[in-house]
Amino acid sequence: MSAGATLFPGDVVQLGEASTVALRFGNSLVLAAPLTELVVESQGVTLRSGRLQVRANGEKSFGISGPFFHVNVAALGGLASSAEIRLGGKRAQVSAVTGTADLTAAGIVSAYTLHAGESATLDASASDAAGAQAASSPAAGEVSRLTPQVQIDRDAQHIVASVSEHIYWNDDLRSGPTGRAHVTLNDGSQLNLGSDSSLRVLQHDAQAQQTSLDLLVGRMRGKIAKLTRPGAKFEIHTPMGVAGLVGTDLALLVTDEFTDLMVFEGAVRFITLNGQSYMVTAGMHLHISKSGVVEGPLPTTPQEAQIAQNLTDITSPVAQGTAIAATRPIAPLIVTITGTAVGVGIGVYEGTRPTVSNVIP
Questions:
Q1: CA distances for 292 relative to 220, 257, 259, 287, angstroms
Q2: How far apart are CA 8 and CA 40, in angstroms?
């Protein structure tokens, strides 16, 4: 291969230990590092192994495909976007350098947008780790519906949630500004997590009816299965106190300044941090400030009840992706903030065959 050569869809580029190459796709540029193997496609490239640095200058996005992921990068406002993609075995890393990069893992229909300075690591062997997780940490339920983006913090992993994703003890569900999640617990209880919220599942033993959740911030609507066993408990911890339930329908709002509790069916006993106990029945709500001042229980207006429902409802489920014919994602997305990424970025070509700009044999 020499400088100025024209490549066609299906052409395979394999680089040796000391070789690099720059491929120009219209206005976009792809730099391939030593020991990289890629395939030229009609709408981008497929990375088989190695490292690519891509700069997107064109009006349309440039697609980079891998065995368990796909990346789209496009110029923003006339400014080039750039990213770096590394692939080795069953692990891949995508870093956005300038602009943004939309990353989709196999089996997940929605893309995760990386901004400049952010990196995402994908691990296709995570399905094996999931089995080990199930053996070491009990399952609590699964995600039934969601609106992206929702993240699950599990030990050191940060997994972008998908429909049918299992939830385990000590998992922390975190939703973004537009994210919402509907979780079905093993005892049949239904939890709706609103946007900008964080809910940790401390414990959920469906057989013994022992459940403890921690709503750190945000909104949650819960339709809780009725407790029938002696000593059964279903508790939701908040920074202002603990809500104890006995089969009910409720909504909680937690902010830095206060906690609001609404009860739609059944009854909830709320115990504040200083030990005060309040019984809140259907149609009532309680307001607890950070300073410990309690207002209520007071009647809930229809408007207040409707707002609590509207801000946690998910109108339609997100379909499962079929990128690799999977009913569950085989490549959970682990997102980490790394500081400033290093490299150039990604582009797209359409109707223009790539040419070789420079080759270091």
A1: 21, 10, 10, 10
A2: 7
Q: Are residues 50 and 152 in the same domain?
A: no
Q: Which domain holds residue 68?
A: 12-124+336-360
Supply the CATH number for residue 193's domain: 2.60.120.1440
pLDDT, one tens digit per residue, over 303-360 is 999 999 889 988 654 433 322 222 333 444 544 444 433 332 222 233 345 555 444 4
Per the structure block, which two tokens stand in for 327?
């009913």
Measure the CA–CA gap between 260 and 7, rounded to whole angstroms. Answer: 62
Neighbouring residues of 29: CB distance < 8 A, sequence distance ≥ 6: 22, 23, 54, 55, 57, 344, 347, 357
Kindly report the backbone phi and psi dihedral angles of residue 71, in degrees, each rounded to the nearest multiple of 5, phi listed first: -125, 135
Q: Is 326 a member of any domain?
A: no
State the pTM of this model: 0.59
Question: DSSP secondary structure string, 127-162?
Answer: HHHHHHHHHHS-EEEEEEEEES-EEEEETTEEEE--
